[in-house]
């Protein structure tokens, strides 16, 4: 069952091939057997999952099942789940049992899906390798000496290893697309405002967006159908109709205009990754698409702008972790300042502290205009780059990451880690959607093809990705780990 | 040296919305600690604010009432600082693009002259919770019921020149917000608090002196006292060769003094930046016109109308328009009895005295405006005399009867104007008072006027106050003089 897509599993549940309880038990068993090696889960909610599975089976028996009723999923540990620890990968929230559900969690539950548990992640979603988790690094099922990418590394690794058919991630600067690419799965970051952020622990509020991570674009379409839409509890979610994303998956691609941003094929791009991406583009040409080079001239300012805006918002968003109401509190504080400083010093990891410091500095009096205001101007230019490009082409394509998954512990210098996100970060600054689909291998590790569209073009992205997956089988390949360890 | 005081006020007004500015929790005062704080108010991980439209409407109404510029776009910013009763570690406020721009407020001074105080801007923000230092054995308790209550912070220009003007300004703001119904204005419950900026400069000097900010002053009286103390402190300091430092001070009403809290050097860097969780507020012209059409008559307009249309004195007009409740009560009394001057006299005289004695506000008056108007009407149409009117007032106050007419009927207070009946009572009094009659007769003519009072009193007593006093006077004089 573990090599099947959500779409296939849903059909099997519908035809009665197996029950949700059987399916859920199967995946729980795989997690039990294999996750010791991967560390992709922080919390497994086995008992609750089996109860939900039984309820789903009853619903089906009563003839009330929806498309995804009974499908097991996993949630990045950044989604608040009522009654279940929601740690955000941090010691700070190791003791935090969320008293409410995120909107995404509520919607998935209302659709009858089953949560197997909460997946590992870089602390507060800050990282590109999942090595910044308080709960330890996650390993890449394709090569246990490699990172799975981050920050949604646990979700990506768990799906790739066949421990769960699909998972939810969040993407602030590439945190869905890059781990999807590193782990050889499909990951969609929707348009900013497409999916409610309510109940998702905030890292950088103007950039954060949740999305599905699964084996195929078709699976992502099914999941986006469930989670997309306006939420009165999130003012930044957009009141705009949600189409059925599965309906347009099979639209033909003849005449599709593909742009290749020249800035995404420059220095630092691994030649094998480049070859895989260019081969993928050839597949599209064979499907009737035309290809041209385009330019996104402000691409190189994306990382500096991001590392002003995201830490600025983070420094404010993370102020609530002060040891007063919830989360880690130091032992025997001498006074209020001691309570604040020790609780935060003990509760946050190095990278989180680094970004809080950067953000606090850039917002300070005398520095605000030079950093924050300027970064916002750069952000507008970057957004305009994309809008200009989409005047000429339908979608943009390029690598999701300049290299395949790197080795655990390989990137010690934070800036070299930040540079990993060169192809994904601008997308968040512009607010547009992007998807990463498996497109081959480089040095035995998966390569992700990134496809970008204009605001709210998710249906088109999923269609373009699905057609590639109809023509290729990269997305169906499983790591040996998936078979050996369960 | 002659000194001049310069004062500016930042008034925080709690808006009377049913729910909080960014959450659905109730804003009611006085509930058990932390029972009116939801996930959003607690700043739990993952929660997001949603702006309360009612708070926006109230802020705009205030802006319209002070003839302010209302910008098309306003933006919420985060003011970052750590404090235990500030759950998110930042206060959502408006730093750069407030909802209400420059406007002005007219204040009335003791001599009934008026002065215009310019408003720099007014912005929306959320209140913090409360730190409770008692009953926790050296620890601090946090009550977050108040966290997220909408506040309108009204920032004046430094246009006030003494404590009286500052108090008058605060009263004017109080009266505007209560007229608009956007705040209950209850200062004791903290619905209105202010920060007072005070500086002094040599008279004639244009440049402002260094100011001190006195935080959280919560009554009209305290504002005057805090300013008085602070002005004296600053002048003494300068005259002794010292310098005023820019600092935040706290007023201690117990000791009647202000004390330093923190100096400018110790001040927080609040690291304001636009709140990414809230969209800019965009107000179109149609919305502003809709709110404008719903504005009630405001205190300054009412005061002017009371003088020009009703012929009240400047003083009466000012007192009667001071609060919306007072004005509405007076206008109802006037509507019922038809005589503005009498209505003004009764409301400010008999009624105000009675309310004062029992420490009641006009909203809690046991006697309604309709009852009082009815009573005045009976005086005006001579059904009862002034003395009986006071009895009727007392009866209505005590709840004995639902209207003046009912009390008059029940107590038989209807004025006797029948000359025959009055003559009969007078004859009896004269017959029963031979000594007084003799005294009257033997007196110098110019002293008799005074002595007649005795007989009037006796007759009124005999009529249980119902005889028409003017009539009694006339007939008595004629009859006594006939005895000479």
UniProtKB/TrEMBL annotation, chain A:
Look up the record and report any one GO term of the cellular component aspect.
glutamyl-tRNA(Gln) amidotransferase complex
Report the EC number(s), separated by commas if there are several.
6.3.5.7
* Alphabetical UniProt keywords: ATP-binding, Ligase, Nucleotide-binding, Protein biosynthesis, Transferase
- Record family assignment: Belongs to the amidase family. GatA subfamily.
The terms under GO molecular function for this entry are:
ATP binding; glutaminyl-tRNA synthase (glutamine-hydrolyzing) activity; transferase activity
Any one GO biological process: translation
Q: Name the active site residues.
A: 76, 151, 175
SUBUNIT field: Heterotrimer of A, B and C subunits.
Q: Which organism is it from?
A: Vreelandella nigrificans
Q: Which reaction does it catalyse?
A: L-glutamyl-tRNA(Gln) + L-glutamine + ATP + H2O = L-glutaminyl-tRNA(Gln) + L-glutamate + ADP + phosphate + H(+)
Designated name of the protein: Glutamyl-tRNA(Gln) amidotransferase subunit A
| InterPro entries xrefs | Amidase, Amidase_CS, Amidase_dom, AS_sf, GatA
Record function comment: Allows the formation of correctly charged Gln-tRNA(Gln) through the transamidation of misacylated Glu-tRNA(Gln) in organisms which lack glutaminyl-tRNA synthetase. The reaction takes place in the presence of glutamine and ATP through an activated gamma-phospho-Glu-tRNA(Gln).
Q: Which Pfam families match?
A: Amidase (PF01425)
For this protein, the parts annotated as crossing the membrane are none
Pinpoint the Amidase domain residues. Answer: 22-462
UniProtKB/TrEMBL annotation, chain B:
Highest taxon of the lineage: Bacteria
Mind telling me which Pfam families this protein's record contains? GatB_N, GatB_Yqey
Q: Which UniProt keywords apply?
A: ATP-binding, Ligase, Nucleotide-binding, Protein biosynthesis, Transferase
Which SUPFAM superfamilies does this chain map to? GatB/YqeY motif, Glutamine synthetase/guanido kinase
Could you tell me what reaction this enzyme catalyses? L-aspartyl-tRNA(Asn) + L-glutamine + ATP + H2O = L-asparaginyl-tRNA(Asn) + L-glutamate + ADP + phosphate + 2 H(+); L-glutamyl-tRNA(Gln) + L-glutamine + ATP + H2O = L-glutaminyl-tRNA(Gln) + L-glutamate + ADP + phosphate + H(+)
Going by the record, the broad EC class of this enzyme is: ligase
Question: Known SMART domains for this protein?
Answer: GatB_Yqey (SM00845)
Assigned EC number? 6.3.5.-
The protein's GO terms of the molecular function aspect are: asparaginyl-tRNA synthase (glutamine-hydrolyzing) activity; ATP binding; glutaminyl-tRNA synthase (glutamine-hydrolyzing) activity; transferase activity
Domain Asn/Gln amidotransferase: where?
328-480
Entry keyword Lyase:
no
GO BP of this protein:
glutaminyl-tRNAGln biosynthesis via transamidation; translation
Sum up the protein's function in the record's words.
Answer: Allows the formation of correctly charged Asn-tRNA(Asn) or Gln-tRNA(Gln) through the transamidation of misacylated Asp-tRNA(Asn) or Glu-tRNA(Gln) in organisms which lack either or both of asparaginyl-tRNA or glutaminyl-tRNA synthetases. The reaction takes place in the presence of glutamine and ATP through an activated phospho-Asp-tRNA(Asn) or phospho-Glu-tRNA(Gln).
- What assembly does the database describe for this protein? Heterotrimer of A, B and C subunits.
For this chain, the family text in UniProt reads:
Belongs to the GatB/GatE family. GatB subfamily.
Q: Which PANTHER family match?
A: GLUTAMYL-TRNA GLN AMIDOTRANSFERASE SUBUNIT B MITOCHONDRIAL AND PROKARYOTIC PET112-RELATED, GLUTAMYL-TRNA(GLN) AMIDOTRANSFERASE SUBUNIT B, MITOCHONDRIAL
Protein name (record) = Aspartyl/glutamyl-tRNA(Asn/Gln) amidotransferase subunit B
- Give the species this sequence originates from: Vreelandella nigrificans
Taxon lineage: Bacteria, Pseudomonadati, Pseudomonadota, Gammaproteobacteria, Oceanospirillales
What gene is it encoded by?
gatB
């Amino acid at each position: 069952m573990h090599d099947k897509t959500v779409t296939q599993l849903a059909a099997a549940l519908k035809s009665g091939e197996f029950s949700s309880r059987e399916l859920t038990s199967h995946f729980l068993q795989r997690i039990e057997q294999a996750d010791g090696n991967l560390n992709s889960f922080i919390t497994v909610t086995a008992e609750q999952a089996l109860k939900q599975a039984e309820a789903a089976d009853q619903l089906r028996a009563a003839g009330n099942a929806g498309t995804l009723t009974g499908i097991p999923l996993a949630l990045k540990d950044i989604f608040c789940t009522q009654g279940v620890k929601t740690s955000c990968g941090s010691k700070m929230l190791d003791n935090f049992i969320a008293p409410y559900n995120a909107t995404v969690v509520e919607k998935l539950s209302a659709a009858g899906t089953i949560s197997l548990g909460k997946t590992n992640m870089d602390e507060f979603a800050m990282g590109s390798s999942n090595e910044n988790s308080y709960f330890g690094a996650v390993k890449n099922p394709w090569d246990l000496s490699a990172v799975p990418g981050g920050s949604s590394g646990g979700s990506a690794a768990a799906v790739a290893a066949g421990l769960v058919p699909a998972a939810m991630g969040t993407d602030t600067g590439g945190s869905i697309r890059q781990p999807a690419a590193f782990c050889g799965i499909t990951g969609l970051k929707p348009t900013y405002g497409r999916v409610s952020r309510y109940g998702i622990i905030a890292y950088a509020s103007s950039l954060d967006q949740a999305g599905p991570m699964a084996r195929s674009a078709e699976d992502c379409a099914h999941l986006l159908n469930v989670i997309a839409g306006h939420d009165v509890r999130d003012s930044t979610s957009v009141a705009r109709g949600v189409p059925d994303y599965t309906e347009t998956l099979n639209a033909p691609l003849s005449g599709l205009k593909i742009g290749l941003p020249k800035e995404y094929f420059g220095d630092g791009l691994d030649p094998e990754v480049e070859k895989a991406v260019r081969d993928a583009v050839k597949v599209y040409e064979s499907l009737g698409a035309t290809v041209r080079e385009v330019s996104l001239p402000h691409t190189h300012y994306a990382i500096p702008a991001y590392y002003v805006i995201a830490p600025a918002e983070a420094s404010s968003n993370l102020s609530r972790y002060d040891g007063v109401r919830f989360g880690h509190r130091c032992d025997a504080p001498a006074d209020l300042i001691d309570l604040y400083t020790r609780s935060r010093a003990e509760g946050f990891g190095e990278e989180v502290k680094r970004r809080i410091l950067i953000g606090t500095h850039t917002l300070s009096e005398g520095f605000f205009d030079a950093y924050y205001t300027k970064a916002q101007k750069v952000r507008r230019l970057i957004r305009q780059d994309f809008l200009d490009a989409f005047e000429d082409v339908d979608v943009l394509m390029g690598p999701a990451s300049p290299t395949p998954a790197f080795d655990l512990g390989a990137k010690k210098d934070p800036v070299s880690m930040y540079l990993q996100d060169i192809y994904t970060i601008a997308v968040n600054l512009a607010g547009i959607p992007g998807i990463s689909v498996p497109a081959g291998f480089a040095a035995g590790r998966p390569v992700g093809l990134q496809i970008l569209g204009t605001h709210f073009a998710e249906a088109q992205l999923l269609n373009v990705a699905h057609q590639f997956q109809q023509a290729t089988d990269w997305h169906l390949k499983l790591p040996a780990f998936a078979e050996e360890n369960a | 040296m002659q000194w001049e005081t310069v004062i500016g006020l930042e008034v925080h007004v709690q808006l009377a919305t049913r729910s909080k500015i960014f959450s659905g929790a109730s804003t009611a005062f006085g509930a058990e600690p932390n029972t009116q704080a939801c996930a959003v108010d607690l700043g739990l991980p993952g929660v997001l604010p949603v702006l309360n439209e009612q708070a926006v409407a109230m802020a705009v109404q205030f802006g319209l009432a002070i003839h302010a510029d209302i910008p098309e776009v306003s933006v919420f910013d985060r003011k970052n600082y750590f404090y235990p009763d500030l759950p998110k570690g930042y206060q959502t406020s408006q730093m750069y693009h407030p909802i209400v721009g420059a406007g002005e407020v007219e204040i009335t001074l003791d001599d009934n002259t008026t002065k215009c105080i310019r408003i720099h801007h007014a912005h929306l923000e959320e209140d913090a919770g409360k730190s409770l230092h008692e009953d926790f054995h050296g620890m601090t308790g946090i009550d977050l019921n108040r966290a997220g209550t909408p506040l309108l912070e009204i920032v004046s220009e430094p246009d006030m020149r003494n404590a009286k003007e500052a108090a008058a300004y605060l009263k004017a703001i109080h009266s505007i917000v209560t007229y608009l119904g956007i705040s209950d204005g209850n200062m004791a419950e903290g619905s209105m608090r202010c920060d007072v900026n005070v500086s002094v400069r040599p008279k004639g000097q244009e440049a402002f002196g260094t100011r001190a900010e006195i935080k959280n002053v919560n009554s009209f009286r305290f504002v005057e006292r805090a300013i008085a103390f602070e002005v004296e402190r600053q002048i003494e300091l300068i005259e002794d060769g010292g310098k005023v430092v820019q600092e935040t001070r706290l007023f201690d009403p117990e000791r009647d003094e202000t004390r330093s809290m923190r100096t400018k050097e110790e001040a927080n860097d609040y690291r304001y930046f636009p709140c990414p969780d809230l969209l800019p507020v965009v107000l179109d012209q149609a919305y502003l016109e809709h709110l404008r059409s719903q504005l009630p008559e405001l205190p300054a307009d009412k005061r002017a109308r009371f003088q020009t249309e009703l012929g009240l004195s400047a003083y009466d007009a000012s007192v009667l328009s001071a609060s919306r409740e007072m004005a509405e009560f007076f206008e109802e009394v006037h509507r019922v009895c038809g005589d503005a001057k009498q209505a003004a006299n009764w409301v400010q005289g008999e009624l105000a005295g009675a309310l004062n004695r029992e420490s009641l506000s006009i909203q809690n008056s046991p006697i309604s405006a309709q009852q009082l108007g009815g009573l005045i009407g009976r005086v005006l149409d001579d059904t009862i005399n002034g003395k009986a009117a006071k009895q009727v007032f007392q009866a209505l106050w005590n709840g004995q009867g639902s209207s003046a007419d009912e009390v008059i009927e029940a107590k038989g207070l209807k004025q006797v104007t029948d000359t025959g009946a009055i003559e009969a009572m007078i004859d009896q009094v004269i017959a029963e008072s031979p000594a007084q009659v003799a005294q009257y007769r033997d007196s110098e003519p110019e002293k008799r006027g005074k002595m007649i009072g005795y007989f009037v009193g006796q007759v009124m007593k005999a009529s249980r106050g119902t005889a028409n006093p003017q009539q009694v006077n006339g007939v008595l004089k004629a009859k006594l003089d006939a005895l000479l």
